[in-house]
Here is the input.
Amino acid sequence: MDEATDTDTRLAAWADDVLAHLDAQARLDQDLLVALGREPNLREETLNRMAEAVRAAALGIDAAGCAAAAGIPERLLLNWQALEPSFADAMTAATALSRSNGHGEEKPLPLTPLELRTLLTVIRAGAALGAAAARVGVSRRRPDEARIRRPEVNALILAARRARAPKSARRSGSSPGHGYRLLQVDGDPFIG
Here is the structure.
């Protein structure tokens, strides 16, 4: 085996391992609920997703990317902002924090780890790279440049493509990246 092929094989194995870690991290909260003997409930799930959206906004990601990072449609994010003034204030404050620390300037920054993680999630759900970049709220040029500069980023994107469900499974009618889970509704009038 030549050196280039060996390097490609090692990068592919590393990228597959990273994606496995992302899967394990996504299951962590569910596993902890099982350990506590509790079922997931809608209020906690909504608050967790709101927190992810605020975190993304603080890191300079736009509304589409915040929604993707939270695993929700952008329309739901906007509805939450309209229905929950404290959430809208938190998003505004997080965006202001990001801008005060240099995000949003003319010069595009390299991809952040959260942008890359969200990009990989959207690609695994079946989106092409350009559509995934738009969904995350970054220009197509940023992941392309990252792929050229860092072979690891390219390996992760290729691994995300390999990990996609078959096309027939992706044509279920739901939008990419949005699965459904059963949640216990705890009687809270704010359902989202």
